[in-house]
Specification:
Layout: E1 14-17, H1 21-26, E2 33-35, H2 41-47, E3 53-56, H3 59-69, E4 78-84, H4 90-96, E5 99-103, H5 111-119, E6 127-133, E7 138-143, E8 148-152, E9 170-173, E10 178-181, E11 184-187, H6 188-195, H7 197-210, H8 214-224, H9 238-245, H10 254-264
Parallel strand pairs: 1-2, 1-3, 3-4, 4-5
Antiparallel strand pairs: 6-7, 7-8, 9-10, 10-11
Helix pairs in contact: 6-7
C-alpha cells in the first residue's frame, strides 16, 4: 500500500545496522550507510550527526554500538531498535540518542514499510510499532517521527462484527496507517484523533477548509433537496456526482454545472453559495 505524501526531500541520514541484504534493499531509497560488522561502527559513530537515524536489526551490533559510543559527548541522533532489547540498556541508549524507539516482543512495521514511512513528510501521523504493558493496561506506539503515544487498552472496543482485540499479537500494517491486534484492526487516524489534541485540531482545520469547497456545497444542497446521487441520471452518472462532491474533479464543465443546477432547481452560479 502506498502512503499518500506531499513531495519533500527527507532531511536525515540513515545508518542501518543489519546483515540481511533484503532489508538493505528495502531501505535503498533512503541511501543508508550499511553497517554489518563491529569494525564498521567506529567510522559510522564518527560521521553521525544529530539528525542521523540509526535503525538496528542486530542486537550484537547494538551492544557494540553501546560500548563504542557510550562516552560520546554529543547525541548520535535517533535510535530505532527492532530487536529484543535488554531493559537495562534503555537508560544508556537514552543518554546516547536524542530519541529512541524500541521493540518489546516484536510489533514493528515491516522493513519495506518502515522505509516508506521514514520518507513520508507526514510521518508524525503514521505509526511504526508498539507494545502492550499488561500491568498498566496501556499500549505504547512509536510514531513515524519517533515520538511515543500511550493509550489505554480500552480504546480498542469490540468491532461491529464482534471481533475483539488480541493484545498478545500487536503489529502495524498498511505503511503505518493500521494497527492490527490479532484479527482486530483499528485505523491509525482514529487513534490519533481520539488521543492527540494537536492532531485533532489539525484535522478539524482541514475539515473546515474542505467544507468550503464547491463539492461540499453541492453535497449540502443535494441533501437539502432530498436527492440521491442516482437522481441526477441520466444527465449525470452517480459516480460523476460523487467525484465532484469528493473534490476529485478540479474543473466542473459548463454542461455538467448546468445539469446539476437543473436537478437542484437553482441557478448554476448559486450552487457554491450553499
Amino acid at each position: 500500500m502506498t502512503v499518500k505524501t506531499r513531495t519533500r526531500q527527507h532531511d536525515h541520514s540513515v545508518i542501518l545496522l543489519d546483515r540481511t541484504a533484503r532489508r538493505a534493499a528495502a531501505f535503498a531509497g533512503l541511501n543508508p550507510r550499511i553497517v554489518s560488522s563491529v569494525a564498521e561502527l567506529r567510522s559510522s559513530v564518527a560521521q553521525a550527526t544529530r539528525d542521523s537515524i540509526w535503525v538496528s536489526y542486530a542486537s550484537d551490533l547494538t551492544d557494540a554500538l553501546l560500548k563504542r559510543a557510550v562516552s560520546s559527548r554529543s547525541p548520535l541522533g535517533t535510535g530505532v531498535f527492532i530487536h529484543a532489547i535488554d531493559v537495562k540498556s534503555i537508560p544508556a541508549l537514552a543518554s546516547m540518542f536524542r530519541r529512541i524507539a524500541y521493540a518489546v516482543d516484536g510489533g514493528f512495521i515491516a522493513a519495506e514499510e518502515l522505509a516508506e514511512v521514514l520518507k513520508a513528510p507526514n510521518r508524525e501521523d503514521l505509526l511504526i510499532g508498539g507494545f502492550v504493558n499488561a500491568a498498566t493496561q496501556t499500549i505504547t506506539f512509536w510514531r513515524g517521527n519517533f515520538d511515543s503515544l500511550t493509550v489505554p487498552l480500552a480504546t480498542f472496543r469490540k468491532s461491529g462484527d464482534g471481533t475483539e482485540p488480541n493484545f498478545e499479537s500487536v503489529s502495524v500494517i498498511d505503511c503505518g496507517q493500521t494497527v492490527r491486534l490479532g484479527k482486530y484492526e483499528a485505523a491509525v487516524d482514529a487513534i490519533l484523533y481520539e488521543h492527540d489534541t494537536e492532531y485533532r485540531r489539525r484535522r478539524h482545520k482541514q475539515r473546515l477548509r474542505d467544507e468550503q469547497t464547491f463539492g461540499a456545497s453541492l453535497r449540502r444542497l443535494r441533501k437539502q433537496r432530498g436527492l440521491r446521487r442516482e437522481d441526477f441520471q441520466p444527465d449525470l452518472a452517480a459516480k460523476t456526482v460523487a467525484r465532484i462532491e469528493q473534490g476529485k474533479v478540479r474543473r466542473v464543465q459548463k454542461h455538467t454545472l448546468d445539469s446539476l443546477a437543473k436537478h437542484l432547481s437553482v441557478q448554476p452560479q448559486e450552487i457554491a453559495s450553499f
